[in-house]
Design a protein that fits this description.
The chain is mainly alpha-helical. The protein has helices at about 5-35, 40-65, 100-125, 130-155, 160-165, 175-195, 215-240, 250-275, 280-295, 305-325, 335-355, 360-390, 395-400, 405-410; strands at about 70-75, 80-85. Strands 1-2 form a two-stranded antiparallel sheet. The longest helix has 30 residues, at about 360-390.
């Protein structure tokens, strides 16, 4: 495969190396929104699942994802070939690590799969066992993430909708709103349902009670790290999967910034109007929701449209966190489902609505979302359900009361100045 021009390859590598900042940001947000007695456990979990996801992706994940133009398995429908999974060797054998798009895509996947793995930890905070979260990560990194990423980025059948059916350019997603954020959010939803709510979250009448996070400074600082990482995601994705020239990264950075800033202002305004004061945690989640929603179209939307996408995302996050708790009894401490799943779905739709794309593009975007909800979610839930049956995911009640730090790690995050009271 032909290497990229030196300037383009160097810029792409630099952008890929920014991606772990997004994982750092989410780790800080997940930790800050959780309880102090589980802070060390959350940070260590984020680091371990990122590491394990990278190893599993290196071993088998990239073999299923691949890159457009490389060996694949296909099937015929209506006389047309449909690409369903890559046929790469395991452990990157035969992949020349140079400036070729395939090698850079493998490096990009090594970083982004870890980010996807960190997302569900926010939903399982305070009750998800460390070993179980690592086992679930192996399923995500080894199968569900690379499978869907192949369909979107590896020349798979969702990317072929334009060629085979004339649906625009096929599914467009430069920054990974669906392959990274929504797959992580889908996993978060499955984990939340399997674990159940935290002890003390609901009364006997199923009325949700507030269990506030312990460190708003962590949460807000994490937003800045996430912003930096998302620029890396969007820029590298645009170069690798849309064939964008290096100069397009200016549009990517501008669109992601506008989407995030519009979203946090909207979330702060909504909470101020509803509660009399802006809520720091909801506003921070609005910021990340804006980044997520802006990811899919960051390289194709005009800046004004990106700002509008962020406004809707900020409002969506501000309302959906409460709706999920109140009406569906979903206890999501980190807001991962609202921030990463719902915002990603909205962002994918927005490409078809506001992007300067060929006719039928919105149908391709809807097809991608329908595949995510109709196939990837049942697959993810089923795999984690079997895992839970074999090795229960939830910590024992006494462990949850004691705190994950002491119960699973043997030491607290704040031993010198923090006392933990019962609920």
């Amino acid at each position: 495969m032909t290497p990229l021009p030196e300037l383009t390859a160097a810029l792409c590598i630099l952008l890929i190396l920014l991606v772990p900042f997004a994982a750092i940001g989410l780790a800080m947000i997940n930790t800050g929104l959780g309880r102090s007695r589980s802070a060390s456990h959350m940070m260590l979990s984020c680091l371990l699942v990122f590491a394990l996801a990278a190893i599993v992706y290196f071993a088998i994940g990239f073999a299923w994802q691949g890159y457009a133009g490389r060996p694949v398995h296909t099937f015929q429908i209506g006389g047309k070939p449909w690409n369903w999974i890559a046929a790469e060797p395991f452990f990157w054998r035969g992949l020349k690590l140079d400036a070729s798009p395939a090698a850079l895509s493998a490096l990009f996947g090594l970083m982004s799969v870890g980010l996807a793995a960190v997302i569900p930890l926010g939903s399982g905070g305070g009750r998800w066992r460390l070993v179980s979260s690592c086992a679930s990560t192996a399923l995500l990194a080894g199968f569900t993430y690379p499978l869907f990423a192949h369909w979107v980025w590896g020349g798979g059948w969702l990317a072929q909708l334009g060629v085979n059916y004339g649906l625009g350019q096929g599914l467009i997603d430069a920054g990974g709103a669906l392959p990274i954020q929504a797959v992580g959010g889908i996993t978060a939803l499955a984990i939340t349902w399997l674990l159940g709510p935290r002890s003390g979250k609901y009364t006997h009448d199923r009325v949700p009670l507030a269990l506030p996070g312990h460190n708003a400074v962590f949460v807000l600082m994490g937003c800045f790290f996430a912003w930096l990482g998302w620029i890396g995601l969007g820029g590298a994705g645009a170069i690798l999967y849309l064939g964008a020239e290096p100069g397009r990264c200016v549009l990517v950075a501008a669109n992601l910034t506008l989407s995030a800033t519009a979203a946090i202002l909207t979330a702060a305004t909504v909470t101020n109007l509803r509660y009399g004061k802006p809520d720091a945690s909801v506003s921070a989640n609005g910021w990340v929701g804006g980044l997520v929603a802006g990811s899919a179209g960051c390289a194709v939307l005009p800046p004004a449209a990106a700002m509008f996408v962020g406004i809707i995302a900020g409002g969506l996050v501000a309302f959906s966190v409460e709706w999920l708790e109140l009406y569906l009894t979903i206890d999501d401490p980190g807001g991962s489902i609202s921030v990463h799943l719902l915002s990603a779905i909205w962002g994918a739709f927005a490409v078809g609505l506001f992007g300067a794309t060929p006719p039928g593009q919105w149908v391709a975007q809807v097809a991608g979302v329908a595949t995510l909800l109709g196939f990837i979610f049942p697959l993810t839930y089923g795999l984690n359900y079997l895992l839970d049956r074999y090795y229960p995911m939830r910590v024992r009640p006494d462990g949850e009361r004691q705190g994950m730090d002491l119960f699973e790690l043997g030491a607290g995050a704040y031993p010198d100045f923090m006392r933990h009271n019962d609920d």
